[in-house]
Amino acid sequence: MAEQDFDAATKAFSKAIQGLLRPQIRAMIAQGITAPALYRMIKQIYVDVADEEFRLDDQRSTDSRISMLTGVHRRDVRAMRNADRSDREAAEQKVTTIASVLGHWLADPDLIDAEGQPVPLPRSAKTGQSFETLVQMVSRDIRPRTVLDELVRQNLVALDEDTGMVRVRSDAFIGPGDQDQKVFFFAENVGDHISAAVDNLLADDPRFMERAVFYNRLRSASVDEIEAIARELGTDALVRLNRLANERQASDKEDPDGTERFRFGVFFYREDEASEKPGSDDSGDGNQT
Rounded CA gap, 56 and 207, in Å? Predict the structure, then answer.
């Protein structure tokens, strides 16, 4: 590639990166993350990515090689590679356990009724299904009472103290209300979406589904209608795939080849373009990979 072509491609990609970062910077400022704090995080991520994904012959890279690849000083590379991450891992385990309990409850044929709705469960029972057995199916590292208290606190389930029955609230279908879970899934969902897009960008033959439908020049009422249908279709797709994946996992998890994971997501975004700056793109509609 000629030098001028390389510069043009780099400039175009830099502009794309700026577009990706703008909404994230908005979230960072709202959460009190300053530019110096972001720079420190970026240095850590540069080191992590270089260490994990740019190895030679599957050999762990030296501090010097990572420093050369990233521009991060070797002293900082050494400190970042030895950083303690146990607190983050513990928090991730808690969030994933809670999400897995709900996911299993919404998918297991023994835990849903004829209409596909999750059935109420006794908090505990000597025989048969209960909330405690549900949690123990997912993980034995966290006490069922701890999981129940957290789900009740987030208004995702309701506990009838008189009968001891636990039921899933309708809010559980909307998404997590807890800030820690919001942050966790913000990273996981957006991270996997961007990973799919990056793999498609770098590959000669894109292999991940990553498309969107986009239109403009629409009235607010029209977008309200479209968004309502998008939510219905998206929820149906998520519920259907959750049940299928739960069924497959029951047989695959004991198989030595059961090493893969997936994430399927849906999103809908809208904004009023009347406030955009003059000269902004006002193109029509279409599909985009």
Answer: 25
pLDDT tens-digit profile of 263-284?
999 999 999 988 655 444 444 5
pLDDT digits (tens, 9 = 90+) for 166-177: 999 876 666 666
**Three-state SS letters, 62-121:** CHHHHHHHHCCCHHHHHHHHCCCCHHHHHHHHHHHHHHHHHHHHCCCHHHECCCCCECCE
Extract the tokens encoding 45: 């991520």
CA–CA dist 83, 100 (Å, integer):
28
Sign (positive/negative) of CA torsion 169, 266, 25, 37?
positive
CA distances from 72 to 4, 41, 63 (A): 27, 12, 10
9 is written with which tokens?
Answer: 């491609």
Q: Is pLDDT of 219 > 90?
A: yes
Q: How far apart, in whole angstroms, are the C-alpha atoms of residue 266 and residue 262?
A: 14
User: The tokens of 95 are what?
Assistant: 């969030």
Q: Is 59 helix (H, G, I), strand (E, B) or coil?
A: strand
Which domains, from first to last, does the chain contain? 87-173 (1.10.10), 211-289 (no CATH)
Angle of helix 86-105 relative to helix 179-202, nearest 10 degrees?
A: 90
Whole-model pTM?
A: 0.68
